[in-house]
Amino acid sequence: MGLVRWIVGAAVKGQLFSSYSMGVVMQTVEVLTVVHKKGAGKTGKGYEMDVCQCILRDGQELSVGELILPKGHAPVVPGLYAAAFKLVRTFEGKVQAAIESIAPVKRPA
After folding, report:
1. Helix (H) or strand (E) holding 10
2. Which end of the chain is more exposed for a tag (fewer CB within 10 A), N or C?
């Protein structure tokens, strides 16, 4: 986890990037909105999650989509963030990337 803190610390200092190191993928994302969702699944078990609509930046390529924020995350408002991702298994049995940590990025002056 120390590596993630170091990488996020570098991002907070204004470095926009994507990188991969020791199983942690770092990516710069621009959050457009955050939506709190709650309800019950097919089995009736309740859930709550925060989902952000965002732009994923990878060099010159841009993608728009949704990311689920980790439980207990600090408040996220629209802006630029450095996100650390890890692979997780969903309740549907799919493997996908999930945000492990997210920190605001200061834009270069």
Report:
1. helix 2-12
2. C
* Nearest-angstrom CA–CA distance, 63 and 102: 18
Q: Alpha carbon of 27 to those of 45, 63, 92: distances in Å?
A: 32, 12, 25
As a whole number of angstroms, the distance between CA 26 and CA 20 comes to 6
Kindly report, residue by residue over 81-105, the tens digit of the pLDDT.
988 888 888 777 888 888 888 999 8
Q: What are phi and psi of 27, to 5 degrees?
A: -145, 145
The domain limits of the chain are: 2-104
* E strands present in 41-78: 46-58, 61-68
> What letter does residue 3 receive in the DSSP assignment?
H
Could you tell me the CA-to-CA distances from 8 to 43, 64, 99 in Å, in that order? Answer: 37, 22, 13
> What's this model's pTM, rounded to 2 decimal places?
0.66
Tracing tokens 């990311």 back to the chain, one arrives at: 67
pLDDT in tens, 43-73: 888 888 898 999 877 778 888 998 888 888 8
